[in-house]
Amino acid sequence: MSDTVKYLLDEQHLPRHWYNINADLPVPLDPVLHPGTQQPITADDLAVIFPRAVIEQEMSTEREIEIPEPVREVYRQWRPAPLYRARRLEKALRTPAKIYYKYEGVSPAGSHKPNTAIPQAFYNKQEGVKRITTETGAGQWGSSLALAGSMFGLEIVVYMVKVSFHHKPYRRAFMETFGAQCIASPSETTASGRAILAEHPDSTGSLGIAISEAVELAAQRDDTKYALGSVLNHVLLHQTITGIEAQQQLEMAGDYPDLVIGCTGGGSNFAGLAFPFLGEKLRGGRDVELIAVEPSACPTLTKGVFAYDYGDTAKLTPLVRMYTLGSSFVPPGFHAGGLRYHGMAPQISHLTKLGYITPTSYNQLDCFAAGIQFAKAEGIIPAPEANHAVKAAIIEAEKCRESGESKTILFNLCGHGNFDMQAYTDYLAGKLKDLTYAEDEVAMALAGLPSVA
Amino acid sequence: MSDTVKYLLDEQHLPRHWYNINADLPVPLDPVLHPGTQQPITADDLAVIFPRAVIEQEMSTEREIEIPEPVREVYRQWRPAPLYRARRLEKALRTPAKIYYKYEGVSPAGSHKPNTAIPQAFYNKQEGVKRITTETGAGQWGSSLALAGSMFGLEIVVYMVKVSFHHKPYRRAFMETFGAQCIASPSETTASGRAILAEHPDSTGSLGIAISEAVELAAQRDDTKYALGSVLNHVLLHQTITGIEAQQQLEMAGDYPDLVIGCTGGGSNFAGLAFPFLGEKLRGGRDVELIAVEPSACPTLTKGVFAYDYGDTAKLTPLVRMYTLGSSFVPPGFHAGGLRYHGMAPQISHLTKLGYITPTSYNQLDCFAAGIQFAKAEGIIPAPEANHAVKAAIIEAEKCRESGESKTILFNLCGHGNFDMQAYTDYLAGKLKDLTYAEDEVAMALAGLPSVA
């Protein structure tokens, strides 16, 4: 059999728990600090913007956290998600490596993001919340929360980075089809938006600005909370369903990964796939190498510093210790919009600092070329974000061709490219360029990092 | 359990045969006629544009036709496709009806079209063909054949209706990502294209014209054949995998449909789901009602005549007896591009004429409203074509609410709307209008039907 092989779990194997890596960390995470007092934050501080159940998960050190049955009900529509052996790609690469990919594009929103949007909507609904605010860059997260809001009867307000709002009208249409409100950020609807617009009337926005607006709106009304699509512990926790499924699927295949690869913007799809395997290793189980792939133009893990920083531009969020390029840094407009964030999940930052994760970075042209090579072999056009993982997997498979090793490579194909065809159009027309970040802008952003006592 | 329920077959239940309804027709189909001689066409006549294996299937009356293993290998990437019980939609409609939908949007091209693109590419490859030409309207068929060409190493040339070529650049990018060539039709590359352009330099094209160009190009070179994405017997045959899977899945659910519903352009997704059930009925099994749903603006079954006509504008194709609005009729530019065809599959036409299929039609605004209602309940945004089936299913479920009957309704959700978000954008902005066909144009097209001896 030389073709793609699919490993599909039946529903009785849909995981009943998420995996919390905080239970197995060799050194605990640094505390999250209140932005005002710079003292460790309390559950009460967070309760202004998050529901209690989410805050508990954010702070938990329990290894297994139960997935509520109503969440599993919705997950069942597309989960367990398939794991594929990329035999056609292996053949095209003439590699002895075994390449597996977990495909999260099967969700109705086309990415891994509903894995956390659904439980976040559920917990908010359970606690009587009527409205959730959030931000979105490329639109995958906003689409997913819009979908989740529709499933649980919640009003959703999405601040979409202005440049994406205009470049990706179909993502906006997707959200509005599910009844969500989608606002171009910076906007006149918040003080933080108005402040930016007063200074930069032509601002095209950033995730940091959009987060400020969403958090501000959530803090204004008791019936409104805020949801974040990446970075935080509870988000990474919800994504571990992908890795737990993949563990079972690889067991069906009689295999175990030597390498687990994912692209990293805020870090959630990478962590979701990698943490269950890393947990095994941390508990004395099998060794595994983890590769986090970021764009060269927003090289948080590879060029950032490990420091306390804000999650947003207006400095409304708590301070977390993470790799960061500085919360005032605005990355250039490359196409993998989901990877344009100045920071990185504290858990991933911490584990990278401890040496458990190897970060690497690639330019967008190389990533698009890899994505097209993948599509021609495997039939699926990846999202530009996912192309970074594809690129790294191909590089590793090519190393195996040179060395003759037959490594088992697992990567997260975190979404399809159906809403990103303009990027492919530009690439195929030779119009796409590699972008670099301005070193002086990062230096300035880093110079502005808060000094933490 | 009040939520959506998924019925997923494991791979060992992936069908090994397609179902050929020609074996069970109470009255055989009228012969296909040579466009020149008006005599019944021979396999040799067809061999100029089709591979032998496909011609055999086109003419076969065997009930079961084996699916080649290399085709099943590729199918396995996304098949068996899920069958869902739409419990959330049922609840929203407060209907005692049970609504099931077969979801074909899980294919890499996002629709049911790869079900026939894959075997057609396979048979061509097997017979040494190097290049396949085809036409596409909205782009779903062209995308699927591009994908299939990439899987089997074939060159693909797609003539895309010019208006869609410009309105749907992302479908073109999709095809080009898989290495296919996509040409706006009418074009200067063929005599039939040049003839149209000479008379109508601003022609926006039609499926009929694009078919003429693709057939002409295929007839020119021995290493080139032509592929059609709907209408013909072998295409409908390949699509029956959906109905055969659905039969097994409904058996898992302990249910059987009272109604099977599909949208009809050329007829392939409807036939694919409905024919296996109709075959049961024709062989003396359970009764089932079949509803074919078409757009009011291209009402082939509901307003056309049952007559011999050409499949294309330039009259290059054989003559088939079918419901038709006349091969020179160009329907107005509504959004369900896949339903803009002047004719209807001969098998469907024949069975409609015999009373086994009930045709109906809806306007596009009603269909979009139904699609959005479906999306909000079930989480999937349907393709504009599929919205026609959704609309009919909702109407039938509402009838059950009135009558108190608990009918079992099965419909084909033949594709997702990811590449059709402009239509949703226009609908949500109130810019979409209901379109009507010009009765005088249909009258003129019908007046020009060939007189068949």
UniProtKB/TrEMBL annotation, chains A, B:
Its cofactor is pyridoxal 5'-phosphate. It catalyses: (1S,2R)-1-C-(indol-3-yl)glycerol 3-phosphate + L-serine = D-glyceraldehyde 3-phosphate + L-tryptophan + H2O. Its EC number is 4.2.1.20. The gene is trpB. It comes from Thiocapsa imhoffii. Tetramer of two alpha and two beta chains. Pathway: Amino-acid biosynthesis; L-tryptophan biosynthesis; L-tryptophan from chorismate: step 5/5. Keywords: Amino-acid biosynthesis, Aromatic amino acid biosynthesis, Lyase, Pyridoxal phosphate, Tryptophan biosynthesis. GO terms for molecular function: L-serine hydro-lyase (adding indole, L-tryptophan-forming) activity; pyridoxal phosphate binding; tryptophan synthase activity. PROSITE patterns: TRP_SYNTHASE_BETA (PS00168). One of its GO terms (cellular component) is cytoplasm. The modification N6-(pyridoxal phosphate)lysine is found at residue 113. This is Tryptophan synthase beta chain. InterPro entries: Trp_synth_b-like, Trp_synth_b_CS, Trp_synth_beta, Trp_synth_beta/beta-like, TrpB-like_PALP, TrpB-like_PALP_sf. Gene3D superfamilies: 3.40.50.1100. It is an enzyme of class 4 (lyase). Residues 77-415 form the Tryptophan synthase beta chain-like PALP domain. CDD domains: Trp-synth_B.
